Every structure is written in structure tokens, then in C-alpha cells.
Amino acid sequence: MSNQNFLNALTSLLTTVNPAELFKVLATIRKDVEWPKDKDNITRIREKKHLKHIVGALQSNQRNVLNVALSILGNCLLDKDCSRDAVGHYNILSHLNQLLKRFPKDDSIIGRIFRIVGNLCQHRDQWANTIIDRKPQIVTYIVNFVTKVSKDELPEDESFSEATTIMAIRALRCLLNSHTIMTLVKTFGVLRAIGALFIKYCIEWQKNKSHENLLINIIRLLQDYSRFRYYHSIMEMRSTERGDSLIYLSSVLLLAPKRVVKIVMNFIRICQLKSELPVPEIFDKFIEVLQKHSIVEELNDECVEYLQCLCYLLEHPANRNTERCGRCVPLLVKALKEFKEPTCTSLECCILLIGSLNKYKYDDKLMLEQVKANSVEILLEKIHWLVGSSKLNTDHKICRKRKMYSVTSPVWKHFGLTYGELLEPRSPSPSDEELEVFAKFERCPSPPSPCSSSNSDLREYACSWPSSSPKSVSRDFSDSDSDDYSPVCSDADVSDYEGNSLANDEEKTTEDVEKATEPAEHVEKQSNNCDNIIDKSTLTNLKIRLLTEIAKLLKTYIKIKPAVPQLASEDLLIALLKCSGCFDWQHHSNIDTIDLICRILQSHDYLITLMRTNFVETVYNLTLMTHASKCHKCLQFQQIGQMILTKLTILAESGVGKGNIAHQILRGEMDLKKQLVLVMPYIIRNKAILSKLLINCGGLKILLKLMTEPSETEEKRKSIKVLCALASRKLSIANPRSQMFAEAVNRIEADKYEEPLTCENLVTIKLTDGSTLKADRDFLSASSDFFGRLLNGYFKESSEDEILLQNVKLKPLRCLLNLMGIVEKKSSIDVDLDLKTLLDVIVLCDRYLMNDLCLSLSESIERNRLTHQTVPQIYQWSLESGTNILRVECIAYALVANLLDDLRLNMFESLIDLGYLEELVEDIKTLLTRFLSISDSFGDEEKKQKSLKVHLKRMKDNLLKNVHLLDT
């Protein structure tokens, strides 16, 4: 029904002459031309040429007809095609000019004309140029209107609403473009008039906080004019009838902080004197507000906005001086600390704050002020947002790849583009308002360089600000027709023409018009907080940007002299290690955190401090291969660990490093000595240096003392681990079990001795327990020198058929007699016999001088029976039997066997519990000392390994020789 009324009204428009009927027809049309809801109706008006009759209605003398016609045209001209026809075909500019002359004091008509001018200019720069060229009287009238309103008092017969003033300001803003800036400023004096108006309402706002909406619109106009590099703009603003209007920017700073700061930053590019802009006053205002309130808890979004503006001002070198920066640094660090949760807004603010702190990198004094304010600890908290505060997690499944990366080339550098670059499309926009909206959806670039002053840089930087508070948003977007623009302005009966309904429609239309007039602002107003709409990839990108800014600031701290002690923090280095993209945090950035760690490790000041933490052990654990050598992840961890350990090695083996370590081991407190010796073997590769520190300075003695502590402590576990690392990885002591030949061996069942029945020369062996065993006298004499002399020499047993053997058990003797007959000289065998009996057999071999069989059986145990479970038993037997056989091999195996830490610890605990602590410590000390004394100046690796085997065998022979000397 409504659509039919609209069509009927259009038809009636062609024939209506009576003003009252014309008003009624126009009122009906006005109901159905709301933008953008009724865009089709507006198109129908243009296509049917009805726009001509509506424009023609502007010649009427009836105010109510003019108000409705102007309201309809205001909505229709939001369509660019209607604007083209109205200006080009129906000469609407002349009609508007005439109306301004006919009704110079009518607030409602004037306001709607101003609105039409603004709507026309928003489509193309062409219409602004056309208005200035063809009808400059309209611009002159608007400027004069603003000048008139800026006076303290208006003439008695004139009264203008705030809405009309806002429409005038909006029209002057929409008239602006690159072609009209000079004419508007210099010829028409727009900024001189606006500046005076700005001063008037700033004073009133300071008194009673009134006219906020109008001030916001003035500030928006100033922001748009400030974008153009035209110095005359500053001159005009400073020479208004009321004085220097730029000074008053600081007085309304809290009303629209971002816009005021943008105005100042834009004018900084073209100003000639620092005193031309109120930069000190703006800084003082921001600092005053931020110092009085908690950044996050009290002021919330508003304070965040002030903080962002302060950082934005600090971007430009002209705004930074020692006194001002000295006040800002503690404030920025405090603000950074108060952000506790990694929300979108918090991440963006932290990125901005850290970037601002890094602007002082050329002033060591200000950088030290940051460090004194615990900035490093705060940065660590922000890194924990990304990777958490848990320990380094290296657990992973075996990972194989078809193409293995080179060990000399870091894996994370094989990608051409960074993750952030792939997620960060940029499309320049002509206005700051659009960019502020897109900042919620696009990935934002880093802040521009302080040396950069291009307009594009400033636009891009605007993207880094999150959405304003709801209060500021509602202030920023208020271009609207006033309720005073009621089309029912005649003495006609309102009820007859549905005036109340029409007034409501007019109010709705006003809101919709403004939404269409400022589409970008409408999107920003309707959008929710960034935390609610941001997706996972954007949040990840923000975290990557945060890591980038933190890394840049840490690089600056690294260059400070003297060195910053907070950088030698285990938590910080582990957190940076976790950010490398190789652990749980699998995001690639263009920041190589491993390289950052290596830079920190270039300072000698950090060596002793880091050696006192668990950092060195953690990095060493990365070099241990959990899986096979083809596991890509293990190789990656190993590469990272070796890279960091190499940096520590360079420090430790330098003159300063080894001197500091030696001094602390000799003169330091016991706790410090323990901490140093527990990591020295991990980082010192030079055997000569390691030998001096461990032997000459007493480091090895401390390690062995820690190993023998009565209770199971962390230090005891670490000492055992480091002793094993020293033996296996630094001294290359051979594993006795792995050094045995892997050739096929004969498996022999030892306990199958059968007494000879047909032998002519039998001898009966009687044991202490009364048991007897028969054997061939000739076979015994031929197999053993001991039996040969006993049975065929000058002893009484040579003439007896029964001999007595003391301290011998039947089963070991029976196994010995069996093995004597079936084992060939120097052959490799595997004896099928329980370990205890086999060890007793070896004792008998040693006692009865059967060296070849003793060697074969010892090698059999060494090859097949040496495990973490049997080492304590074999070592105890070696000591208690007095043979020292396999004694060195047990120690060597315990130190270098490839075992899990828990199994190795249990094995050492069992060795210690045997009760031979002094012998155990001495054996380990002797073994390590001997290998530490071996020179590194061998040829190739094969010769080196051969020499190590010789030394191991020589130790074994010396032990056996000592035993025989004691026996004699």
C-alpha cells in the first residue's frame, strides 16, 4: 500500500500547483526515500525525470514545501547518479544559491542546504571543484555563517541551531580535496573562521562540557585539512580573530585524543618552529592522566587510547627530548606491566609500547632507565604469553622427511616468505576513517620509521590502533540533520498531513543519511570489540609482531655497556628458545631467536651467571639423540643445542673465561664451585683446559664428592650425568661391550662334564665339603702349569691318587674341567652358565694359571653379560676375589654406556651401596685422569680410537700386575 501511495504521489507531482497539495505530495514522497533502504525509489525518481519537479519546487515561497523538498533532495543526492543529474541537468546549485539569498536567516532551510552541499561533494572531487568555480557564493556564505556563529553574540533577529552549524562544518570538510585546499584556506579563509569557532566552543567545553558533538566535527575538519602539506594552514589557524587556535588543541585533548594527535603529527611535517604546535602541553596532559590512573583497571579503553596517542607522538624525533623522554620511560614500562592477558587490544598496545621504548636505542641513559624499571622481566612475561612458562618440551614422535635439510643450514631459513608476510595484505585507503575500520580486520604493519614523514606512512600507522572506547566512538560520528529540520514549518495543520509521523520519518532518515554519508564510520560503530571478531590467524599474527618488537628491544639491550645482568636469565633464554618455531610454538617469524640467544652469549659477563643455572644442561640435553639419526626433529634439536653450546665454549675457553672459572673453583664458595663443575664438561671441549680445571684446580674431586653423597639429591644426579658425559663425549672412552668383535661365537654349555671311565692315569680331586671329582691326570698337567707341577713335580700330590683342593666348589670346578677340554686357545665363546658360577670359574682359571681360558671367559662376560644390572655384581666380585678382572671394564661401561638417566642412576646407586666407596672413587678418578692426560694431537679419528684402546688395556694390565705382585 505504501509503495502505491508513493507512485500515486509521483504522478500527482506532475500536475499539482496548489502549495498545500504540493506539500502533501512531497511529504508522501519523503516517507519512501530513506537511504539506503529505499534506493530503488530514488532510482525511480531519477529515471522518471521526477527529480526535475522536486528541484523545481525549490522556487516555492512556502517554507514547509522548501523544507520537505530539500529533505528529499538531501536523501536523493546520496545517489551519485542523482547528484550528476541534479547538478548537470537541473542546475540545483543556482537554486541553492538563490535560496540562501531569499532565506538568509532561516535555520532549517540553511541547514538542509549545507547538508546537500556535503552530500554532493562526497561522491567526486569534481562537484567540489564545480561549486567553487561556478558558485563560490555558496562557499562564501558558509564561511561567513561560521564566522558569524563564532561571535560571542548573534544579532537579535538571528538564531542558529547547533545542528546547522555542524552541517556547515561538514560541508566545508567535504569541499576539501587536493585541488581545493589552497583556495579554501587562502582565498575563502576557511581555517581562520573555523579556528575562531573552535576557540569559542573550547572555552565553553572547558567550563561545562557542552557542545561536544560540535567540537568533534571541528576536530575532524582540522584533521582532514592537516593532511595536506600546506604551511598556510598553520598560519591561518594561528591568526584567527580570537587568537592562536592551535593552542586550544591541548584543552580538548581528552575529548578526541587520536584525532588531536593526528592533527599535531600532520602539522609537524610542515611547521617551521616547534613553538607553533602545543606538543609540550599535549605531552603533559597525557602523562598527567596516565600517572593518576591504572592503565588497565581504571580507565580501561579510554586510557588505552591515551597511551596509544602518547606512543604515536613519541614516534617522531621532533617530539623527543631528554626531559620529556625521562618522564615517559617509567610510564611506558609501568603501562606495559599492567597488561596481564593476551587479548587483541593488549597485544596491539604492547607492540606499540615496546616499539616506543626501542625509539630510545641511541640514548644509553634512557635504555638503562628502562632496565632499572625491570623492563626485561616484563618482556619475559609477554614472551610467556606466546609460549607459556613451562619447561622446554622436547618430547616428540620420530619424524622422518624425504628431504633432509643440511646440518649447516638452519631449517627455519629455508622459507622464502615469513608467516607474517603471507598474512598481511595491504591496500591503501584515501582516508583515516576507513583505515581505522579496516584495522579490525586486516593484519597491521609495524609502526613507521620516526624518520619517515610520508602521508602513506601515517595512514598505515593509524591501523595499529585498536577500536576506541564506546564513548569516543559515539562522539566521533555525529554528522546528522538536526530535529530542527522539520519539514512542517508552515502554519498548515500538522495533523492533516501526518506531520508527527513525518517528523519521525525525518529523524530516522537523518540517521540513515549519516550512515550512508560516512560508511566507514558506520562499520566502525557497528563493529564489536576487536577481541570478539578477530580470528585465530590474526591473533597469531599479532603474537608474531609482538615477538618481533621484543626481539628488537632485546637486541638493543645487548649493545648496552656495561652488560645488562637481567639478560643472563635462564627463563628468558629458554623462552626465546621456545620461540624459535622448533618446539611447541610452531609459528615461523622473520626473527631468529636462536641468533638472539647467541648474541646474548657473546658477553663474558654472562658466563659464570649462566653456568650457575640449569640452562647449560638443558641445552646439552638437546644434543642427545632420542631417536634414530634420521629423525628430522632430533637433528633439528641437536643443531640448535650445538649452536648454543659452541657460543658458550668460545666464552669458556677464552683467556677471560677459563681464568674466571679457575678462579671461582679455587677461591669461590663451595656452592658456586659445585654449580660450575656440574656444567664445565658440557661446554669446554679443549682437553688441556678441561684437564687443568678438573685435575689441577680440583674440579674432578668436587664431582666425585657430589657423586658419593649419602642421600639421593639433584646434585648427585647431575654429577653422575656430567661424569658420564665427560667420559663418553669429551674423553671418548670406549664402551667395553661395543668394542668387542661382533663375529659369530660358539655357544658352549659349560656344566656337562663327564668323568673319564677308561683313563689309565686317573686322579681323584677331593674338595673341602667332602665331594669328589675324577679327572685325567695327564689332561690336567697338559692344560695347566699349576696342575702340571702339582701332579708331576716334587709335591706329595704327585704320588697320590687323591688330591685335596681348598676353597673350591664342585660346580665351578666341574665347569672348568669341561671348558678346559672344549675351548680352544684365544677363541671367542659364549658360555651358557649363570653369572655367579661363571665368575667362580674365572677365579679358578686365574688361580690355576690358565690365562688363555681366563681371557676367553672374561671377554665372554664383557661381550654378553655386561649390563646395568650386572655391573655392580661383577665389580664387587672383581674386588672381593682379588683378581681385578673386569674391574676397569665395569667402570668404563658404567660411565659410557648408552642408558636412560634413571637406569644409570640406579646402577651407580648400586655400585655405591656395595661398600667399596673408596675403591670406586679411586677407579673413576684414575680412569678419567689417565684419559684427560692424553694429548689431543693425534692424526685421524682411527688413530685416536686405537690409542684410547691401548690406554684402556694398559690400565687393565697394570691392575692385574699389581694383584700378582701382592700375591707373591
Quickly describe the structure:
The protein is mainly α and 968 residues long.
Helix/strand/pairing category: mainly alpha
What is the molecular shape? Answer: elongated
- Residue stretches low in confidence (pLDDT < 50, at least 5 long) are 404-527
The largest β sheet comes out as: 3 strands, mixed
Spatial extent as radius of gyration = 47 Å
**Spatial strand sequence of the major β-sheet:** 3-2-4
Q: Quaternary status of these chains? A: single chain
Task: Describe the protein's topology.
Layout: H1 2-13, H2 19-31, H3 39-47, H4 51-56, H5 63-76, H6 80-88, H7 92-102, H8 107-121, H9 125-134, H10 136-149, H11 162-174, H12 181-187, H13 190-208, H14 212-226, H15 232-238, H16 257-268, H17 279-292, H18 301-314, H19 322-338, H20 344-357, H21 364-372, H22 375-387, H23 419-422, H24 432-438, H25 455-462, H26 470-476, H27 499-517, H28 519-526, H29 530-533, H30 536-558, H31 570-578, H32 593-600, H33 607-611, H34 615-622, H35 632-653, H36 655-667, H37 670-677, H38 680-683, H39 687-696, H40 699-707, H41 714-730, H42 736-739, E1 746-749, E2 762-767, E3 772-776, H43 777-783, H44 785-792, E4 802-805, H45 810-822, E5 829-832, H46 835-847, H47 851-865, H48 871-881, H49 887-896, H50 901-912, H51 917-932, H52 941-967
Parallel strand pairs: 1-5, 2-4
Antiparallel strand pairs: 2-3
Helix pairs in contact: 1-2, 2-5, 5-8, 8-11, 9-10, 10-11, 10-13, 11-14, 13-14, 13-15, 14-16, 16-18, 17-18, 17-19, 18-20, 19-20, 20-30, 22-30, 22-31, 24-28, 30-32, 34-35, 35-36, 36-37, 40-41, 41-49, 43-44, 45-46, 46-47, 48-49, 48-50, 49-51
Protein name: BTB domain-containing protein
Pfam family, one: BTB
Organism: Brassicogethes aeneus (Rape pollen beetle)
